Amino acid sequence: MSTANAVPKTVMQRFLDGVERVGNMVPHPVVIFLILIAIVVVLSALLSAFGAAVSFERINADTHEIETATTEIRSLLNIDGIRFMYASLVPNFMSFTAVGLMIAAMIGAGVAEESGLVTALIRKLVAVSPPQALTYILAFVGILASVAADAGYLVLIPLAGIAYLAVGRHPLAGLALGFASVAGAFTVNMLIKPLDAVLVEFTNDAAHLVDPNRSIGLASNMWFSIASVLFLTVVIALISDRMIEPRLGKYKPDQAAGDDGSDQRAELSETESRGLRFALFGLIGLIVVFCLLTLPTGAPLRNPETGELVGNSPFMNGLIALIMLVFLVTGWSYGIGAGTLRSLTEVIGAIETSIKNLGGTIFLFFVLSQFVAYFTYTNMGTVMALSLSGVLQSANIGVLPLLLGFILVVAIIDLLLTGAIAKWAIFAPVFVPLLMKLGVDPEAVLAAYRVGDSPMNAITPLNAYFALVVGFAQKYDKSAGVGTIVSLMLPYVLWIFVLWTALFAIWQAFGLPWGL
């Protein structure tokens, strides 16, 4: 990382430098996860031998009924555990959805990048945007990217790095900005997304334990979500401009591990302008096709039972396909216009190149998928989550402190259980009824869960895309490692968590409406 900065470093900057040095001393991420697998295997055997278990109520994901269950630690060193590790090696990897999403996204993104569309678009964005607004635009778009599920990790983060590089700013600051935006505010959006439907459904199942007639809708957190998006856009942009970029200093291109993709020409050439026009025509054509597939009554991408388009529908559930096609069609159209990718053979070559570059990441995901599967099998994360929630539930404190404590517990558990749906299936039947009995609306409990569930996504190694961001960083700084990303993301995580929690507390204290 560049440290070329004549201004004396603050205490916080020196602390983050220390975090980076220590973090980068750890082995390769693959080695780290192999060590973690060994720890999980041994620890599961020890905890199972001592009979660690916990009983709780949960929502059955299939029947949506409340059921009582007992979860005990499962050993990976007994007969069943050994069988599981041996037989699930390939299934664990095949069920790791991050791999499929990454490859699908890169099919389109590879064409867009190889054709030159990405670079041209970034330079165009820089040319038409006020320099001081670039950070805010990228932060805002990054937060909204969650409507496309995990695709934001694969598309927005590298684009943010390229955008910063295009204006002579440090690309690692751009990557950090993109990662913080996509991961740190993942549960809120200005639009309804598929995740909302599941969270609301679980919330209603839990609320019916207290009041069978009490239900909330898909837009039950809409006002709070919109306010959170605008608020976090400002917070993330200020952290980027005031803390992250000054610490990084001036970027030195010789740090890059090869071609960093920089192209800092200020003006677009005539062929590039023509390519952008062709890309626009391709985009318009794709929009027309998708309008025909979504807008008419009974259209193929609408929900076949309810007819809805937003929420639980084929269109929303398959947004990664739309993103892939947008990049593929516009990238090829740009290539035809600019003369960079004319034939189908050249397009296939661009796709092959992008997939080849994922070799190291795919291997890392293979090892990571085993760790996640083993950790899930042992039930250690579930037992820890329920133990912490039990302590909080029995605490004799007021409503607002209980809500704030709930946010803290969710944040801690998010370091171990990153799935928003899996955690809410556990927490909803515990906290929604408890807080409803204290006069708290279920909308408020769900909003609290959104606040606690997002910020830690940017620093937990169990985030499937954390290692991918390390790979993005090494494109611009060959010495970048786990410590680099952790040190960049810590300020975001701390400030987002504190300030977003404060926004929630103010919202609750003033009794503002959570949504529709």
How is this structure best described in words?
The chain is an all-alpha fold and 516 residues long. It has 22 helices and two strands. The protein has helices at residues 11-24, 29-49, 79-87, 89-94, 97-115, 117-128, 134-144, 151-166, 171-184, 194-207, 222-248, 270-294, 314-317, 319-338, 344-356, 359-378, 380-394, 399-414, 420-437, 442-453, 466-476, 482-509, and strands at 53-59, 66-72. Strands 1-2 form a two-stranded antiparallel ribbon. Helix 2 packs parallel to helix 16 (359-378), helix 9 runs antiparallel to helix 11 and helix 17 (380-394) runs parallel beside helix 19. The longest helix is centred in the last third of the chain and has 28 residues, at 482-509. The radius of gyration is 24 Å and the shape is globular.
Strand order of the largest sheet: 1-2
Q: The biggest beta sheet, please? A: 2 strands, antiparallel
**What structural class should be given to the helix and strand makeup?**
mainly alpha
Average pLDDT figure: 83
Shape: globular
Q: Would you count the extended β strands for me? A: 2
Terminal CA distance: 46 Å
For this structure, the quaternary state is single chain
The helicity comes to: 55-70%
Question: Residue ranges: pLDDT <50 for 5 or more in a row?
Answer: 2-6, 261-266
Element order: H for helix, E for strand: HHEEHHHHHHHHHHHHHHHHHHHH
Radius of gyration: 24 Å
- Classify the beta-strand content into a percent band: under 5%
DSSP summary: helix tally:
22
